[in-house]
Write a structure and sequence with these properties.
Layout: H1 10-18, E1 26-29, E2 44-50, E3 56-58, E4 62-65, E5 71-73, H2 83-86, H3 96-100, H4 120-136, H5 147-160, H6 169-172, H7 176-204, E6 207-216, E7 221-231, E8 237-246, H8 254-266, H9 271-275, E9 279-283, H10 287-292, E10 298-300, H11 302-313, H12 320-328, H13 331-336, H14 338-344, H15 352-355, H16 366-369, H17 377-399, H18 402-407, H19 424-445, H20 458-478, H21 488-501, H22 521-535, H23 540-547, H24 560-578, H25 598-601, H26 626-632, H27 645-650, H28 656-666, H29 673-685, H30 695-713
Parallel strand pairs: 6-9, 9-10
Antiparallel strand pairs: 1-2, 2-3, 2-4, 4-5, 6-7, 7-8
Helix pairs in contact: 7-30, 11-22, 14-17, 19-20, 20-21, 21-22, 23-24
Protein name: Transposase
Main location: nucleus
Pfam families: DBD_Tnp_Hermes, Dimer_Tnp_hAT
Length: about 725
């Protein structure tokens, strides 16, 4: 739990008494005074906190209901009044004021009543009214299962039970203007609470931020979004959507974007830490963001890089020199390349310019350097298969044939997406599963489009699915948002390289033979491998994060250079934290082993105090420091799991410097997917129904939403 000063309020005590993770830490204790004149104390007591010796200490100045935990300010010692306690409308029982009206209530315990079952006619009336509302206002059907909607109705039902006359519905419903004002007040309150938490994390160097720009196309409003990540002192990873603020600068330059980022960080007192380079940023390679963050610690998004490798490998983002050669080609040459050129010219994103700065060596990386006009004939058939597949899916969608395909037992053909090119894998898989059904439909209808199915090579299609399968798996692995991910670059890039060069192994540790059906597949397999070598370079923090993961601490699958540098970096950080002087160590080569998952595949061999794994230099060479003890210790199987934080939580007293370094590194996400999910939430907020929402209100709504999600899992986060 983050460090915070305990300043209790009625609202905070309400939350603490209702927490589910440790329901005994805060309880309501009885008023033990011998002379109690008010019946209020039959329902109320004092909130109390559990001490180290398991006794409870009263939180002075408050009184809480035993049933619903609602808390009021109350001063004991004769100065406090129980009037508010007597008038308390408990959601679970009748008001005390009504019970005190009869003297018999002091000696007779009223029987608890259970909720009556709705009569069939009332049940039908409610269902009809809900159905009419959903249809007339075009609301989604699942709105009736929304947790917030249920809580709202429960509140109304509970309140209505406390009155003996009809309630004016206008007293219950709040005006849109009141909701808007309350959203802003709640957002400001949450910002005041989160400010000290973020400052604590920045001071410790455990704060990471992912920035990005987004445009609401319906109103043409630009937004800057910031998502923050940190591993707090409880060794839990927290993610908060800090802002989705309107971008009001006159231009989109790096300097202007930087100005907006600094304005937002200033609200939370984080500018000094940004200036001291204590905050790490994770971003894609969009040129504007990179210019804005020039000089700051930046980790490039691994998912975007892999996606761009694929785009370039299949000539989707052609370089200018390739286009010039195409334009200079003969007419017949252009006609032969028409199908391929659709892929070449289909898109160009802002990040591709950064990728094009890499110039692979023509002699070392032949396939990576091959221009589109020079690729082998069989390789062109692979590109033609992709183009024809895209055309087929588009045609099937336009003609409404997906329903016919489903009726025959096939799979709906899925369109790919230019932004996320890995979705091409899903498209190809759907075609592979339904192509025969499509062929059958075309034959029956004698559709002339049938002849274009011949452009789809079944061997090439199956090879592409196999080739892209691991890219798809890797993409899913690195986009985890619930646990640390920085070390996943070490796992995933190693997996892709082995998948492409034929050295990958299955779950039993046996080599997987490359069995390409189409002759053109080998060209793209080599091209992908070479581009991955050229375009992806491990950041030092990727390898260090892997070293601080109990499964990968000996860096079995890293190069000697990366391994050496990682341990040097760790020792430098330990030196900074504790002021120790350390030296280097040597390590061993990989061993074959069985594995269950991709993450297991690149784990170190099982610990048996393996002296092969780490050399044992004499004590005269360097002191027996934290890193050395960590590398040579036997780690229990419980800690050999995907999430490394439980290990560091339970061993922070043994490794104080390394545990802090682990918090710093595992706070950094390996991708910027989190901030993109924030944009998805913004897109759901900004709809035609909400077209008049003010951009600042949208910012407040998304921020409150993020904090509410956090409090649902950690109700005592701020206290």
């Amino acid at each position: 739990m983050p460090n915070a000063i305990y300043q209790y309020s009625t609202a905070s005590i309400n939350i603490l008494l209702k927490r589910k993770d440790d329901s005994k830490e805060f309880i309501v204790i009885k008023n033990d005074k011998k002379k109690i004149s008010s019946i209020a104390w039959s329902r109320f007591g004092f909130p109390a906190k559990r001490l180290v010796d398991n006794s409870y200490k009263r939180i002075v100045g408050f009184a809480s209901c035993f049933e619903c935990k609602h808390t009021y300010s109350f001063q004991s010692g004769g100065s406090g009044s129980t009037k508010s306690l007597l008038n308390h409308k408990c959601k679970k029982r009748a008001p005390l004021a009504n019970r005190q009206a009869s003297p018999l209530n002091k000696i007779i315990k009223l029987e608890e009543t259970t909720a009556p079952k709705l009569a069939a006619i009332d049940y039908t009336e409610i269902h009809d009214d809900l159905t009419k509302w959903i249809c007339s206002s075009i609301r989604p059907f699942n709105i009736v299962t929304d947790p917030g909607f249920k809580i709202f109705l429960e509140t109304i039902v509970n309140i209505s039970q406390e009155y003996h006359a009809p309630i004016d519905i206008d007293d219950i419903l709040i005006s849109p203007a009141a909701i808007s004002n309350n959203i802003h007040k709640l957002a400001e309150y949450y910002r005041s609470l989160i400010r000290s938490v973020l400052i604590d994390q920045a001071e410790s160097g455990t704060l990471a931020i992912s920035p990005d720009l987004w445009t609401d196309k319906s109103k043409n409003v630009n937004y800057l979004s910031l998502t923050v990540y940190f591993v707090a002192t409880d060794f839990e990873l927290y993610t908060i959507d800090l802002c989705c603020t309107p971008y009001n600068e006159v231009d989109k330059t790096g300097e202007s974007v930087l100005q907006t980022i600094r304005q937002q960080l200033h609200l939370y007192g984080l500018l000094p830490y940004m200036d001291d380079h204590k905050i790490t940023f994770t971003s894609d390679r969009e040129s504007i963001i990179l210019k804005a963050l020039k000089g700051q610690p930046v980790i490039y998004c691994c998912a975007h890089r892999i996606d761009n490798v694929l785009k370039r490998a299949f000539y989707q983002t052609a370089q200018e020199r390739e286009k010039k050669i195409l334009n200079a080609s003969t007419t017949s040459g252009k006609r032969q390349l028409t199908e391929c050129q659709l892929i070449c010219d289909s898109s160009f994103d802002s990040s591709s310019s950064e990728d094009d700065t890499t110039a692979p060596s023509p002699s070392k990386y032949i396939e990576a350097h091959t221009l589109l006009v020079d690729i082998p004939l069989k390789a062109k058939e692979i590109l033609t298969t992709i183009t024809a597949s895209k055309k087929l899916v588009k045609y099937v969608k336009l003609t409404g044939l997906n329903k016919d395909i489903e009726d025959l037992g096939g799979i709906v053909l899925k369109q790919d997406c230019i932004v996320k090119w890995l979705l091409l894998s899903n498209m190809l898989e759907s075609i592979d599963g339904s192509l025969e059904y499509v062929r059958s439909i075309f034959l029956k209808s004698k559709n002339q489009y049938y002849f274009k199915l011949d452009h789809i090579s079944m061997d090439g299609l199956k090879d592409l699915i196999c080739l892209l399968k691991e890219f798809k798996n890797v993409s899913l692995q690195i986009q985890t948002g619930t646990r640390p991910s920085l070390h996943m670059a070490y796992i995933c890039i190693n997996k892709l390289k082995r998948h492409l060069n034929g050295t990958d192994v299955d779950k039993d540790g046996k080599f997987i033979n490359i069995d390409d059906r189409h002759e053109g597949t080998d060209f793209f397999r080599k091209r992908l491998f070479q581009l991955l070598q050229c375009m992806f370079a491990f950041d030092n923090k990727h390898i260090v994060a892997a070293a601080l993961h109990p499964l990968y601490r000996k860096l079995t699958f890293a190069t000697t250079y990366n391994k050496t540098f990682a341990y040097v970096y760790i020792r430098e950080q330990v030196d900074e934290i504790l002021g120790l002087n350390k030296q280097l160590m040597t390590f061993y080569e990989p061993l074959k082993k069985r594995h269950k998952t991709m993450e297991d595949q690149f784990a170190d061999p099982d610990d048996e105090f393996d002296t092969q794994g780490v050399s044992s230099p004499s004590a005269n060479t360097f002191n027996y420091d934290e890193l050395e003890r960590y590398l040579q210790m036997n780690i229990e199987d419980f800690y050999k799991q995907p999430n490394p934080l439980p290990f560091w939580r339970d061993h922070q007293s043994m490794f104080p410097a390394l545990s802090l370094l682990a918090r710093r590194l595992f706070s950094i996400p390996v991708t910027s997917v989190g901030v993109e999910r924030h944009f998805s939430s913004a897109g759901l907020t900004i709809t035609q129904r909400r077209s008049s929402l003010d951009p600042d209100t949208i910012n407040d709504v998304l921020f409150v939403r993020s904090i509410q999600h956090l409090l649902e899992s950690k109700p005592n986060f701020f206290f």
